[in-house]
């Protein structure tokens, strides 16, 4: 069967994930229908069916990619504690199903924009492990040349518009990208992702109002992990039914720990947005880590709650059970896959550690596209000057 | 402006400076007599937007009342009729929302011209101007550039009170990643706005409500649809040798009037119109001060940490040994703008303030 080829795979650190897979799984596109674990709850629309069309290839890809995302985030935790990653580092482990389910429903012409918990979204859009770790460690081969950091990953050629540090700002920006897609008659949509904390931002409602007025193909995706930093949703929102908060805008509540439910919802939302304008998706998800690496994540929630979710709802475990129950791989094969992933991540980190920091002259690049030779200065302007190209 | 040209043509005198003045007046008078056109700043801005929309389908206009209302100050008059609702968008009164949408559209490759009814309202959207627009090209190491123009009236109008009179030049010009332009004449308005719309970086375009209705002579070259002024270059509006007066926007007119008054007293003032607050044309500023040895900077905005402060610092740092007098700053009063007409007048620079400062710099104060 398809999986036996995986164990003989050679190292492919820098090759994009899809290329690595295609060599071993691409021939097996046997269709499989998966039932979502929970029904969808709808607001002002008819929910999609719980039967999700998938394939062997997709199921295995889901497992591998999510396992890769998980390992990447856990490795980032260690790097942060080793002080190789500085500043803010917001980890996505637990929420992988949202990133992967969304990618499965859309193309690279559809745009995604998110906040600062962006490492896995970047990976899902085709970013590479090496560029992730290099960026996190502030090295020149990072996806933003070391100048962005954890919160500012971008991949424009895959319509991934970042990576934003200001809570809520990405939502109007995402509606603007949807505006451009409609303006250019592109038949594509934008997924503007935000958290339960950002869901109360005024600018979100301003952008939603305009999107509804102008029928923009904007899909607002609330990744509700139930905590806005240390504040539980019930303490921040009078109405934590985020899928209903659009009022006149339809919404869908989705089990965000179920990659297939996410896929189905995103497919549904894309069809809706192209015809009828904005829609809200609320993904009921969970983050195992605290808000960021500065937050232990256990002062405002119990360890029992965290371990409870890990046991009952972990998205990778769910896929693993499906893979096993559909006989697509054995336990050993999956364990081997996880070992390979671990090695892939470790190799990427080792390579990234060897990557040098940016040249000092990079301090002054990319301030403008067209600098007209204008002068810019360092702290001692008589010492350090540059002409911006 | 036309008034000044007329005045120049009338004044006689035989001194070298007045001869120079008369000569330049004759030139202006001659070009007027030859049938040179005049244009209001309003029409200049309107024609600039119109031409850029015509040339590039990615350019669109967005803001409150820009469409059906024809523009709160009529700058976008006729554009909705000409280009339709897919190019001219009336927004709800939600600056944070529509500015974010404009910046997002620019991320995706469109060229929005976002109007703030006045720049006072831009404070509601300032996070998008600075964090979403100005910094993106840098944070993404060049992947995401933002070819957007934020435009609208800036600074004091007449009697509109404290919340509607602030000048934002210093605030925006301190941010790396933004370009900040401030036109004075109709030619400035056309050339700088066209340059701004074509520019691949975010531009804050500070107009002035009281200048909209003013007419200026405009050359054939400036009327051409390919006309553009360079960003980052100041204009010497009037040459002089005794003192340099540097300013932008409406205060350029005041500075020119002050220069006239100073000329009557034998002081030859060089008046520089910055046109570009960021990038700041330090070369022209310093070259002028090195020539005259004296500096008077003028702005309408609040004095502390203002544009004038930056100009003074630049001159003191780079041309210290050329200065023959302390640098002078004339700025708006350090108070919120009052409503009463007499207090408002006291809160804003007047021609006599500029004259007095120039005389001080020449050690000629009474």
TrEMBL record, chain A:
InterPro entries: DH_E1, PDH_E1_Alpha_Subunit, Pyrv_DH_E1_asu_subgrp-y, THDP-binding. Its EC number is 1.2.4.1. This is Pyruvate dehydrogenase E1 component subunit alpha. The lineage of its organism: Eukaryota, Viridiplantae, Streptophyta, Embryophyta, Tracheophyta. Tetramer of 2 alpha and 2 beta subunits. One of its GO terms (molecular function) is pyruvate dehydrogenase (acetyl-transferring) activity. It comes from Eruca vesicaria subsp. sativa (Garden rocket). Residues 65-360 form the Dehydrogenase E1 component domain. Its cofactor is thiamine diphosphate. Keywords: Oxidoreductase, Pyruvate, Thiamine pyrophosphate. The pyruvate dehydrogenase complex catalyzes the overall conversion of pyruvate to acetyl-CoA and CO(2). It contains multiple copies of three enzymatic components: pyruvate dehydrogenase (E1), dihydrolipoamide acetyltransferase (E2) and lipoamide dehydrogenase (E3). Transmembrane segments: none annotated. It is an enzyme of class 1 (oxidoreductase). The keyword Disulfide bond does not apply. It catalyses: N(6)-[(R)-lipoyl]-L-lysyl-[protein] + pyruvate + H(+) = N(6)-[(R)-S(8)-acetyldihydrolipoyl]-L-lysyl-[protein] + CO2.
UniProtKB/TrEMBL annotation, chain B:
The keyword Signal does not apply. It is found in: Mitochondrion matrix. One of its GO terms (molecular function) is pyruvate dehydrogenase (acetyl-transferring) activity. It catalyses: N(6)-[(R)-lipoyl]-L-lysyl-[protein] + pyruvate + H(+) = N(6)-[(R)-S(8)-acetyldihydrolipoyl]-L-lysyl-[protein] + CO2. Its cofactor is thiamine diphosphate. Keywords: Metal-binding, Mitochondrion, Oxidoreductase, Potassium, Pyruvate, Thiamine pyrophosphate, Transit peptide. Its EC number is 1.2.4.1. InterPro entries: PDHB_mito-type, THDP-binding, Transketo_C/PFOR_II, Transketolase-like_Pyr-bd, Transketolase_C. GO terms for cellular component: mitochondrial matrix. It comes from the Eukaryota. It is an enzyme of class 1 (oxidoreductase). CDD domains: TPP_PYR_E1-PDHc-beta_like. PANTHER family: DEHYDROGENASE RELATED, PYRUVATE DEHYDROGENASE E1 COMPONENT SUBUNIT BETA-1, MITOCHONDRIAL. The pyruvate dehydrogenase complex catalyzes the overall conversion of pyruvate to acetyl-CoA and CO(2). It contains multiple copies of three enzymatic components: pyruvate dehydrogenase (E1), dihydrolipoamide acetyltransferase (E2) and lipoamide dehydrogenase (E3). Tetramer of 2 alpha and 2 beta subunits. This is Pyruvate dehydrogenase E1 component subunit beta. It comes from Eruca vesicaria subsp. sativa.
């Amino acid at each position: 069967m398809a999986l036996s080829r995986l164990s003989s795979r050679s190292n492919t650190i820098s090759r994009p994930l899809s290329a690595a897979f295609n060599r071993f799984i691409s021939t097996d596109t046997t269709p499989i229908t998966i039932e979502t674990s929970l029904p969808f709850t709808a607001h002002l629309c008819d929910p999609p069916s719980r039967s999700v069309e998938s394939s062997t290839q997709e199921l295995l890809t889901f497992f591998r990619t999510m396992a890769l995302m998980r390992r990447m985030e856990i490795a980032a935790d260690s790097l942060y504690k080793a002080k190789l990653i500085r500043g803010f580092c917001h980890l996505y482990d637990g929420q992988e199903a949202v990133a992967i389910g969304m990618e499965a429903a859309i193309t690279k012409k559809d745009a995604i924009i998110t906040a600062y918990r962006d490492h896995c979204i970047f990976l899902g859009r085709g970013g590479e492990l090496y560029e992730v770790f290099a960026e996190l460690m502030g090295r020149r081969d990072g996806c933003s040349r070391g100048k962005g950091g954890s919160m500012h990953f971008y991949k424009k050629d895959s319509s991934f518009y970042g990576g934003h540090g200001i809570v809520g700002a990405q939502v109007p920006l995402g509606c603007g990208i949807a505006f451009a897609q409609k303006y250019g008659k592109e038949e594509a949509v934008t997924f503007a992702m935000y958290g339960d904390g950002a869901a109360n931002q005024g600018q979100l409602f301003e952008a939603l109002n305009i999107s509804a007025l102008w029928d923009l193909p904007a899909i607002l995706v609330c990744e509700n992990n139930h905590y806005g930093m240390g504040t539980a949703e019930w303490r921040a929102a009078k109405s934590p039914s985020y899928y209903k908060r659009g009022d006149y805008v339809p919404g869908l509540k989705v089990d965000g720990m179920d990659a297939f439910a996410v896929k189905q919802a995103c497919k549904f939302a894309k069809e809706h947005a192209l015809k009828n304008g904005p829609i809200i998706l609320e993904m009921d998800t969970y983050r195992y880590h605290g808000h960021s690496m500065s937050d232990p994540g256990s002062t405002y929630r119990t360890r029992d709650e965290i371990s409870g979710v890990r046991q009952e709802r972990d998205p990778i475990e769910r896929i693993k059970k499906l893979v096993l129950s559909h006989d697509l791989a054995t336990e050993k094969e999956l364990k081997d896959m996880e070992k390979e992933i671990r090695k892939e991540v470790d190799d990427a980190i080792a390579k990234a550690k060897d990557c040098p920091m940016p040249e000092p002259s990079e301090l002054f690049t990319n301030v403008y596209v067209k600098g007209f030779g204008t002068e810019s200065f360092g702290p001692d302007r008589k010492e350090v000057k540059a002409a911006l190209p | 402006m036309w008034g000044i040209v007329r005045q120049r043509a009338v004044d006689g005198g035989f001194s070298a400076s007045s001869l120079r003045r008369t000569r330049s007046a004759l030139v202006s008078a001659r070009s007027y007599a030859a049938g040179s056109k005049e244009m209001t700043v309003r029409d200049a801005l309107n024609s600039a937007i119109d031409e850029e929309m015509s040339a590039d389908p990615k350019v669109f206009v967005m803001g409150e009342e820009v469409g059906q209302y024809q523009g709160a100050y009529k700058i976008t008059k006729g554009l909705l009729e000409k280009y339709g609702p897919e190019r001219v968008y009336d927004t709800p009164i939600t600056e944070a929302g529509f500015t974010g949408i404009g910046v997002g559209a620019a991320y995706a490759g469109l060229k929005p011209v976002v109007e703030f009814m006045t720049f006072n309202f831009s404070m509601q959207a300032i996070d998008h101007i600075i964090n979403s627009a100005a910094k993106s090209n840098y944070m993404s190491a060049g992947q995401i550039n933002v070819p957007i123009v934020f435009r609208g009236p800036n600074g004091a109008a007449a009697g509109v009170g404290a919340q509607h009179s602030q000048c934002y030049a210093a605030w925006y010009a301190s941010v790396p990643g933004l370009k900040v332009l401030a036109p004075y004449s109709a030619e400035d308005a056309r050339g700088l706005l066209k340059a701004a719309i074509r520019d691949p970086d975010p531009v804050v375009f500070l107009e002035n409500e009281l200048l909209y209705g003013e007419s200026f002579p405009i050359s054939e070259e400036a009327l051409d649809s390919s006309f553009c002024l360079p960003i980052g270059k100041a204009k010497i509006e009037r040459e002089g040798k005794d003192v340099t007066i540097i300013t932008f926007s409406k205060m350029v007119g005041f500075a020119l009037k002050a220069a006239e008054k100073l000329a009557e007293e034998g002081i030859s003032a060089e008046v520089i119109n910055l046109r570009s607050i960021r990038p700041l044309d330090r070369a022209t500023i310093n070259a002028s001060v090195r020539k005259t040895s004296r500096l008077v900077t003028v702005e309408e905005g609040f004095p502390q940490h203002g544009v004038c402060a930056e100009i003074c610092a630049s001159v003191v740092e780079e041309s210290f040994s050329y200065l023959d007098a302390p640098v002078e700053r004339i700025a708006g009063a350090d108070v919120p703008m009052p409503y009463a007409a007499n207090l408002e007048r006291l809160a804003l620079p007047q021609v006599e303030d500029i004259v007095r400062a120039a005389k001080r710099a020449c050690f000629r104060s009474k």
